[in-house]
Amino acid sequence: MRNYSVIRYSVAWLCIAVLIHLLIGFSIEMSVDEAHYVLYAKHLAWSYFDHPPLVGWAQWPLVQLTSTAGLIRLLPECLWAVSLVLVYQNTKALRDWMEARAESNSVELPSPEVSEWLAVIGISLALLPHLLVFSLLPDTLLTTLSLGLMLLALRWVNRQEFNHWHWLLLGVLLGLAGLSKYTAIFPALAVALVFIASDRKIPFDSPWPWIALAIAAVLVSPVFYWNATNDWMSFKYQLAHGKGDAWQFHKLLAFGVVQTICFGPLMIYGACVCVKRYRTYASPVLIALLCFFLLPFGVFAALSGSGGLPHWTTPAWFCLAPFAGVGLAFVWEKTNSRVIQTLAALQALLFSAGVVVVFSGGVPFTHLKPNPFADVYGWENAGLRAKELAQSHGTDAVAVKNWSLASRVAWYAYPATVYVIDNHHDQFELWFGRPASGRRVVFIQWSELAGDDQEADFESCEPLESLQTTRFDQALSRFDFSLCTFK
C-alpha cells in the first residue's frame, strides 16, 4: 500500500501541476527569453547571434497559426511531459542495469515502479523546470534530447538490441541536440564515454555508427554555415559569454545555494543516497552514466564564479533524476519515508509560493525597486501603444535601451522596426540594423530598468504619454513614451 501511494500521489501531483501550468500559461505575458526565441520563428534563419536555430524552427508552425502566448506554450508543456516520461524510462533502464549486477554484489534493490515514480516526482517538484514550461528555451529542447540520448546509452549497456534504427535515432538526436544549444557537447561526450566504458564492442566495421555520425554532422551543418558567413559571431559571443566577468568565490557559493533552491534538496538527497548505497557499482559504466550530470554541472559550477544563469543546468538535473529515484526508493522502502515526505512538502510549498508571486505580479513585493515579478505584465499594452504612437507620428520604428526590453516590444509591436541603443552587438542589430542619423522613433522607458537615460543617444526628445501597469489594483511598473530623433 505504501508503494501504491507513491503512484497515486505522483499522478495527483502531476495533474495539479498541469492545471496550474495551463492557468498561468494563459494568464501571463511573454517573458524576456520567451519572446526573444518566439521572434526566431518570425525571422527564420540558418542560425542566430546567440543560439542555434532549433528553438525558432520548432515554434514556427504554431507561430504561423496563432500569436496567443497560452497556445504557443503548449509546445514546452508537451516537452515537459515527454521529459518526465523519459525520466521514468531512464530510471527503469538504470534499475535493470543495476539488477543485472545485484546478485554478484549482494545489494538489494527497491521494488519496481517505486524508483521510476519517485524519480518523476523528484524532478517535477523542482521549481525551475516549471518556469521552462512557460517558455520554450534552448534548454527545454536540450533536456528532452539529453534524456533520449541517455536512454539509448542505457540500452547499449543493458545489451539490448541495438540495430540500424537505433544508430539512426542516435544520429538524429545528436544532430537535433547540436541544433538546440552549443552545450549539447556535454551529453554527446557522455554518450561517447558510456559506449567506450561498456564491455560491449562498438561495431566500427559496420557502416551504421559512421552513418549516425554523418547524420549528426549534416543536421548541425546549418549552424556552421551561418557562422562561417557571419564572421563566426555566435561562437565568439558564446565564448565571451561563458567566460563572464572576473572569477569570484562568493559567486560559486551563490551558485550552490541557487541550484539547491531551483532544483530542490529532494533530488540532491536521493542522488547522494544512491551513490552511497550502490557505490559497489562504481564501475566505469556507472561513472560514465553519471557524466550526463557531472560534465555539464561541473563545467557550469566552475564557470559560475564569473557568471551564469541557473537554468543552464536543467538538462543535467533531469539526467540525474533516475539516480535520485533509485536512492529515494531505497529510503522509502527500507528506512524512514518521513524524510522524503518532508522534503517533498517543502518543495511543494516553494512551488506554491512561486505560483502566487508570479500570478500576482509580485504584489507582496511591490515595495521592492525594481519589482522582480513585474516583468511579465504590461508589455502587450505597451507594445501595441508604441506601434500606434509610431504610426500616428509618421514612423514605423520603436527604440529601447536594452535587448531584454526589445524582445517583448518587437513581439507585441510586430512588424514595427525595433532598435536597441546600448551599443552592443545583438540579434536585433542583425534583424533591424542600426538607426540612421535623423531617424524618428518612439522611445520607451520602463520604470523597472535602472539607468534608462536617453539624452546621450538622441538629438531631441518630446514626451508623449505614460502607461501604468497594475495588478490587483497595485501599481507594478510604468512605461513612458517619447518621440525622439537620433543624432
Characterization of the model:
Helix 9 crosses helix 17 and helix 15 packs across helix 17. The protein has 21 helices and five strands. The chain has 487 residues and is an alpha/beta fold. The N and C termini lie far apart (74 Å). The longest helix has 32 residues. Helix content is 62%, strand content 9%. The mean pLDDT is 90. The protein folds into two domains: 359 residues, no CATH class; 113 residues. The protein has a five-stranded mixed β-sheet with strand order 2-1-3-5-4.
Quick structural overview:
62% of the residues lie in helices and 9% in strands. The chain is an alpha/beta fold and 487 residues long.
SSE blueprint and pairings:
Elements: H1 2-25, H2 32-42, H3 54-57, H4 60-65, H5 69-72, H6 74-105, H7 114-124, H8 127-133, H9 138-157, H10 164-180, H11 185-197, H12 207-228, H13 233-243, H14 249-263, H15 265-277, H16 284-303, H17 314-334, H18 338-360, H19 379-392, E1 397-400, H20 403-412, E2 417-420, H21 427-432, E3 440-446, E4 458-471, E5 474-486
Helix pairs in contact: 1-7, 2-20, 6-7, 6-8, 6-9, 6-17, 7-17, 9-10, 9-11, 9-17, 10-12, 11-16, 15-17, 16-17, 19-20
Domains, number: 2
Q: What is the structural class?
A: alpha/beta
Largest sheet: 5 strands, mixed
Shape annotation: globular
Number of helices: 21
Task: List SSEs in N-to-C order.
Answer: HHHHHHHHHHHHHHHHHHHEHEHEEE
Walk across the major sheet and give the strand order.
2-1-3-5-4
Q: What helical percentage do the residues reach? A: 55-70%
Strand share of the residues? 5-15%
Query: Would you identify the regions where 5 or more consecutive residues have pLDDT less than 50?
Result: none
